[in-house]
Design goal:
binds magnesium ion, EC 2.7.2.4, 2 domains, Aspartokinase, Carbamate kinase, AceGlu_kinase-like_sf, binds adenosine-5'-diphosphate, amino-acid biosynthesis, binds aspartic acid, Aspartate_kinase_CS, disordered N terminus, six-stranded antiparallel beta sheet, VC0802-like, alpha/beta
C-alpha cells in the first residue's frame, strides 16, 4: 500500500493511486488546498477525480428542470459563478483561467436557456456536468500553485457510456482501451485531474452516471488504469458503524470487507455510491476512505480479507421508501402471478428492493431517490397492477439495514435487534436471502430514533 506514511518514496513512485475528492473536500479554496497537500504528500497519487464543489450539483439540478423562471435561472447562475470566482480569487492572477471560467459559464447559460425553451434529458445532463468541469479546472490550478506538475483531462474522452441520460451505463471495454491509449501516456509526466460523475455517449453528448456517481467514476478509472489503490477523501474519518449524523456514538471502522461495505453502500450509507465497490472487487483493489480535513487521523480500509468478521458491523438507513402490497385471492395455489407483476415492473424499468410474500399477497419496496431521473412508481404503473390485483401504496417509510457476518446462522438475532425497538411499528422484515444483512421498514418519522437505539444496543 502506498497510502500509509511508511511507504518508501520508490514504492510510491511505482504505485498508482486514484484519489477522489468529494463535494465538501473541494467546496472552497481552503478545502482544495488541503486536498492538494494530500496529493503532494504521496507520489502514488497520480490521478485525481473531483466532484463538483458542495452545493453546485443541487443548483444545477434545479437549473436543468423545466419550470425554472428567468429570475431564478439568473440567480442560480450568479450563485454558481460566485462559488467558482471565490476560489479563483485566491489563485495567482492569470487571464487564461478567468477566460476559461467565463466560457464555461457562458455555455451553461446557453444550455439553461435552451432547456427553458424546450426540455430535453440530454440538455439536463449537459447542465449537470458543469460542476465537475469547474472544480477540475480550479483544482488543477491549486495543484500547480504548489508546484505540482498537473493537467486537467476531460474524462468524457475516455468514460464512454450509453445514452441513458441521468443514469448512463459505462462501456467498460471502451473505457479500458481509451484509458490505456489516452490517459496512461499522460501519467508519466503529470498528475492528472479529471471529473467524476460525467461521461459521453457515442455521439459525443455529455451523460451523467447518477447522483453521488464520482465515487463510481473513480473506481472505474482505477480498474481501467490497473491502479493499485483507490482513495475516497470525504468529510468524515472513514466508514462508521452508522451515519455519524444520526448518533454521536457512531465510531469509525478500521477495516471492513468488500462484501460488508458494498451492502452498506447499497442500503443507503451515503459515504459510498452503491456501485463503487463493484470495480474494486473485480480487480481486488483496496479502497481507503478518509477525511480530507483530517488526513492524519487515518480512515477505513476496505479489502477482500479482514481480520475480524463481527456478527454486527454497521447499520445503514435509506429514507423515502415506498411499500407496495399486491393482493389477489387468485394467487392461492396459482402459478405465474409473480411473473406478471414483475413483467409490469420491468416494462417500466422499476427495480424492486425488498420483497416478502404470503399465500395471497406480496409486499415490495421501491427507492425514491431525490435529484435523479430514476424511474418512479407512477400512477400508470399502479393502474396496470390494478388490472391484476388489489394494490395498496404507502409512502413515508425508511429502510433500516443491519449489516454483518453470518447473520443467517446467528443465534438470538431476533431479540438482539427487535427487543430494544419494540415500541416502533415495523412494517416489513427481510432476512435470510443474504447472510450479510437483515432489513426492515419503519415509519420515516421514527427512523433516526430506531437507528440510534439499535446502534446503542448492538455496538
Ligand atoms: P462526498 O461529498 O465526499 O462524496 P457524501 O456526503 O456523499 O460525501 O458522503 C459523506 C457522508 O456520508 C458523511 O458526511 C456522512 O454523513 C454520510 N454517511 C452515511 N452513512 C455513513 C457511514 N456509515 N459512515 C460514514 N459516513 C456516513
Ligand atoms: N456532483 C455529483 C453529485 O452531487 C456527483 C458526486 O458528487 O459524486 O451528485
Ligand atoms: Mg458522495
Amino acid at each position: 500500500m502506498s497510502l500509509g506514511v511508511n511507504a518508501s518514496n520508490q514504492d510510491a513512485v511505482n504505485a498508482l493511486t486514484v484519489a477522489k475528492f468529494g463535494g465538501t473536500s473541494v467546496a472552497d479554496y481552503q478545502a482544495m488546498l488541503r486536498c492538494a497537500t494530500i496529493i503532494k504528500n504521496d507520489l502514488a497519487n497520480k490521478v485525481v477525480v473531483v466532484s463538483a464543489s458542495a452545493g453546485v450539483t443541487n443548483y444545477l439540478v434545479r437549473l436543468s428542470q423545466e419550470d425554472v423562471g428567468e429570475q431564478e435561472r439568473s440567480d442560480i447562475i450568479t450563485a454558481i459563478s460566485q462559488i467558482q470566482f471565490n476560489i479563483r480569487k485566491e489563485l495567482p492572477e492569470e487571464a487564461g483561467l478567468d477566460q476559461q471560467l467565463q466560457t464555461l459559464i457562458g455555455e451553461l447559460e446557453n444550455h439553461a436557456t435552451q432547456q427553458a425553451n424546450e426540455y430535453k434529458a440530454q440538455t439536463a445532463d449537459a447542465i449537470l456536468a458543469y460542476g465537475e468541469q469547474f472544480s477540475s479546472l480550479l483544482f488543477t490550478r491549486v495543484l500547480q500553485s504548489l508546484d505540482i506538475a498537473a493537467s486537467c483531462f476531460d474524462v468524457r474522452r475516455v468514460m464512454k457510456t450509453n445514452s441513458l441520460y441521468g443514469k448512463a451505463v459505462v462501456d467498460l471495454a471502451e473505457l479500458k482501451r481509451n484509458c490505456q491509449e489516452l490517459l496512461v501516456p499522460e501519467l508519466a509526466k503529470k498528475v492528472i485531474v479529471t471529473q467524476g460523475f460525467i461521461g459521453s455517449d457515442s455521439l459525443g453528448h455529455t451523460t451523467t452516471l447518477g447522483r453521488g456517481g464520482s465515487d463510481y467514476s473513480a473506481a472505474l478509472l482505477t480498474e481501467a488504469l490497473n491502479g493499485d489503490n483507490l482513495a475516497i477523501w470525504t468529510d468524515v474519518v472513514g466508514i462508521f458503524t452508522t451515519d455519524p449524523r444520526i448518533t454521536d456514538q457512531a465510531r469509525a471502522i478500521k477495516e471492513i470487507s468488500f462484501g460488508e461495505a458494498a451492502e452498506m453502500a447499497t442500503f443507503g450509507a451515503k459515504i459510498l455510491h452503491p456501485a463503487t465497490l463493484i470495480p474494486a472487487m473485480r480487480q481486488n483493489i483496496p479502497v481507503f476512505v478518509g477525511s480530507s480535513k483530517e488526513p492524519e487521523k487515518g480512515g477505513t480500509l476496505i479489502k477482500q480479507q479482514v481480520e475480524s468478521n463481527p456478527t454486527y458491523r454497521s447499520i445503514a438507513l435509506r429514507k423515502e421508501q415506498t411499500l407496495v402490497t399486491v393482493k389477489s385471492p387468485a394467487m392461492l395455489h396459482a402459478s405465474g402471478f409473480l411473473a406478471k407483476v414483475f413483467s409490469i415492473l420491468a416494462k417500466h424499468e422499476l427495480s424492486v428492493d425488498l420483497i416478502t410474500t404470503s399465500e395471497i399477497s406480496v409486499a415490495l419496496t421501491f427507492d425514491n431517490p431525490t435529484g435523479t431521473t430514476q424511474a418512479l412508481l407512477t400512477s400508470t404503473v399502479v393502474s396496470e397492477l390494478e388490472q391484476l390485483c388489489e394494490v395498496s401504496v404507502e409512502h413515508g417509510l425508511s429502510l433500516v439495514a443491519v449489516i454483518g457476518n453470518g447473520l443467517h446462522a446467528a443465534r438470538g438475532l431476533g431479540s438482539d435487534i427487535f427487543d430494544k425497538i419494540n415500541d416502533f411499528n415495523i412494517r416489513m422484515i427481510c432476512h435470510g436471502a443474504s447472510d450479510n444483512n437483515l432489513c426492515f421498514l419503519v415509519p420515516q418519522t421514527d427512523a433516526n430514533t430506531v437507528v440510534e437505539q439499535l446502534h446503542n444496543t448492538l455496538f
